[in-house]
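Render this sequence as a predicted structure.
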Amino acid sequence: MKIIISNSCPVPIYEQIKDQIISQIMADELHEGEPIPSIRALANDIKISVMTIKKAYDELESEGFIKSIQGKGTFVAPKNTQLAREKANKEIEDHMFKIIDIANRFNISKEEIYDLFEFIYRSDEQ
């Protein structure tokens, strides 16, 4: 499992860890039932506080991405694609609200936003 932390990123470290683990699960880089490092092992590997890793793992477990088995370890839970999709939709909505706010401040029309979206979307497909 590869985790890269950015200290200059405005996203809290525990969220960076959590988001990267979710991304690896959704991309099938981490598979159902696969063990993930213990809290202490991951804290040592990436030089982050045990409490920060614990917070990330607690949220991952409460959201159904990982499961802990007493005395055995922590494992990737069965993939819940609906939950992950809902999380992605929420993130997209948050960005869209920011886009609308900027567009309103600078009097940019909805059609201009649509055109820009189509241009970026098409150029990303190529």
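Summary. The radius of gyration is 18 Å. The helical segments are 13-26, 39-46, 50-62, 81-105, 110-125.
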